Amino acid sequence: MIESWLINDGGTVPVSSEVVLETLRARVDRSQLETWLSSSSGRSLGFVTNTERAMVMLLEAKGDPGEHAVEPGAVGSSKGFVLSNGQHDEYPDEDTVPIGEAFRIVEHIVSTGSWPADARWVADR
After folding, report:
1. What is the structure's pLDDT at 26?
2. Three-class DSSP category at 13
3. pLDDT reading at 74 higher than 70
4. Strand stretches in the chain, DSSP E
5. Residue 73 to residue 95: CA distance in whole angstroms
6. Distance between CA atoms of 71 and 73, rounded to whole angstroms?
7. Closest Cα partner for 87 from 124, 35, 34, 45?
8. Which residue, 85, 84, 120, 87, is CA-closest to 102?
9. Percent of the chain scored above 90 by pLDDT?
10. Helix 20-29 and helix 99-112: axis angle, to 10°?
11. What is the pTM of this model?
12. Which sign, positive or negative, has the C-alpha torsion 116, 118, 121, 125?
């Protein structure tokens, strides 16, 4: 079975790997810095950005601590991650990736269902 993904905004039309980046960029342009996608197999894909860096999370099921993209060796932390509930977060840079890399990771996961072979990520389980 091929996994399909929906953006958790009340929409009912699956988002393809061909349009997911356009959709994420449009949301960021509207200051919607947190986006969650749900898959037909029950997984969730989270994307939270401050427009320069992003946290990308992949959860297998509700309640799963999941996995997230990392940049080992990155120094410092970044602010400005605004969640949909208005909360402002700050994350260590090693727990986020540059936004271009985050877009690439999300596109690959939506396309294939898995992390890109060259992406760095850690399990939080």
Report:
1. 96
2. coil
3. yes
4. 5-7, 34-39, 44-49, 53-59, 67-69, 77-82, 88-92, 97-98, 121-123
5. 10
6. 6
7. 34
8. 120
9. 90
10. 140
11. 0.94
12. positive
